[in-house]
Amino acid sequence: MRKKIIYPIFAFLLTVTIFQVAVLVNYHSTGSFFSFNNNKEPQTVTNIKEFEEYLTEEYVTPFEIMVTAGEGLSVYKVSRSSEQYFTEIWKDSITVLKDISASPLYEMYDETKWNEMTGRSGLIIKFGYDCPISFINWISDSVNTNSGLQSINKFMIIPTEGTEGDVYIRSGNTVYRYIGVELGGVLSNEKFLSLYQNIKDSSEFTYAYMTEVSDYDTFKGNVEPDIAVNIEADNAHITKIRVAGFELLTECMLNLEIEPDIYDLSPTMEQYITTIKTRLFGVYADVYKSIIGQNRDLTFSDQYNIYNIHNDGSISYRYTSSSGDAKGDISAAFTNALSMLTDLLSLSASDEIHIYLADVTEEENAYGFSFCYLYNDYPVLIENDGYAITVSATAERVISLDAVLYDISDASSALGETDLYDIRTFGLLSDAGMADLGLLKANNMCMAYIKNDSIVLSPSWIIDDEDMTVLTLTEKEAE
Amino acid sequence: MDSKKAMKILVVLMILVNLIMAGYIISLAVSQSQQRIDNKYIMSILEYRGITLECDIDNSSTPVFKLKHTDDVNDEVYQYLLLRDGVTTRSDDGMVITFIPAVTQRYENIDLDTAEVIARDFMEALPVEQNPYVLDYRQTTGVGTYSFQFNFYDSNSYIYDKYVKIQVSKNGIIEAVIGSISYEVENSGYTASDISIGNILVSNFTRQGISQMVLRKIDSGYLYIKETGQIEAVWRVLYNENQVRYFLTKDGEEVIR
Prior knowledge:
- The structure holds 2 protein chains of 2 kinds.
- By secondary structure, chain A is of the alpha+beta class.
- In chain A, the strands form 5 sheets. In chain A, strands 13, 14, 15, 16, 17, 18, 19, 20, 21, 24, 26 and 27 form a 12-stranded mixed β-sheet that branches. In chain A, strands 3-2-5-6-7-8-4 form a 7-stranded antiparallel β-sheet. A 3-stranded antiparallel β-sheet of chain A has the order 11-23-28, with no helix packed on it.
- In chain A, a hairpin with a 3-residue loop joins strand 14 and strand 15.
- Chain B contains 4 helices and 13 strands.
- Strand 1 of chain A pairs parallel with strand 5 of chain B, so a sheet runs across the interface.
């Protein structure tokens, strides 16, 4: 009987031994007890940056982000260059826009409400133009269910408790309020104060909201209450900048000016033209004919596309065929516009050109996109025109483009200069005879550079309305 | 000794061996479960620091073999690229080949997927053993400009110095960088990591100010250390926009490249 039992026990123990040995061997070769697949698959492909993410970091950014902890006389502009605060706030704000697109509207007010809320502890994010809701939906990957909201000019985020807060959206003269909105990342109430403190510590200038330093009734309807005015910086250091056309284009056009025979170009001139065509059209360079006009403009054209390089180095493009009826999806139109824009920027030898989207318009048959240059947080605007690049595009293609292409660099350090300016806003307005706010019209005011005939530019104070008023800052003697 | 007695001794021995193995397996299981608890704790520390983890912390997959660097230079890829239109250069040690092809095609509406097809086509045409190369990451680097990296994956571990990095734009491939290293397996055997990747993360990753930090991928493999001429087992941490840090699996020391 015992002999009969011992063999099954032995067999059982042998099986258990083999099993345990297999488990241990497997553990030491795969790190897992029961995964007998020795060939572990590597982790899936990592998408480091999606195209939309790239856009919202590089091109589609707000014009200004202002932050205050509730003291309206201590307002700070979030710098684009400081430790990614700007990008992080903007990315978290995009999530907020996505959330409210599906949230119920709490209340609607007239523009007086915006004045009432300006100065509350929180952030104001300004696009600087009426951004169509279709564009907002695209960048925030959302579907807007608030049919009343057609565009967003700016919005205010007020953290209230925990990770919730109120959001006020300014669209035209109407203010839309959403309550209990989920605020993630740096926007949550618990992180907001440290965010504010960090931005305050790294800010060069302190601003005040217009409504805190002047009676609202004196400028109501004419001047936006959230305009950031400077009341204390009488010795602000702001660099001069050097703004010059792309070397390749200006050299080419200068040589063309002195070219003795436009029907028999010199080898140097041929080389310039070939280089420009190759950079713009790649393998299709040969498809484009080069034509030199009597005014010495350089034109590249095929059957439907005409690129004109003018003798001041600016470029225009026209699509000469019918563009069709439908303008299509705004995201595809913007991608087309940006694609052509980056082709043009490839003509520069510099990779330090910063451009931001400054306006989006919806025309009947196309979308309009305008871009400006940016240097050290300050826009570089073109005298009279404002925008440096304007593009009209549909989902199918770019219809037209006008661009003045510049490389921008610091002129002050090159000249060894320290440039000091008195940028106190009311002093500037007073000097220009514009101290009466009741007579002033302004959607915004800010520091900017204005590109005119000069190559070296000093900063100016801009009053932005339908027309742009430029108050040139006077340089102070260093003490 | 009769067979009955021998069988009895064998059974007793097997019971003892099984008990020891069972005890060892239980201790490993407990330690694995403790590791999971530690990982949760580590993740909460990283979260507290504002660091986002887009991947798992997996301590188990450290390299098994020891590799030895050999001086062989694989000339096949270099010769192949020299025959193609474009500019091909090679580093002095022969480990990195850079190829800038001539523009032959235009992709007007290029997107990430189209760019990946172009990159894979180039990859497949290279005279290298194809199967071990896996797409490691893809990245948008500009408007219509994308970057792809294929890494060599051998015996459950990456060989970080064997890679193909391809940049693609609407003009097709604008640059390909091919890293290659020759090696042989010196000996095999399980080499336990003395320090967990969790501890490495906690010791080495802190956020500067409120700037974003996203850990995108953590894996392990082999890295050639130029100074010593050795190939060492390392953890690789891929974070933010394609930034990489390597740490030796044996002691957690960072490898500065």
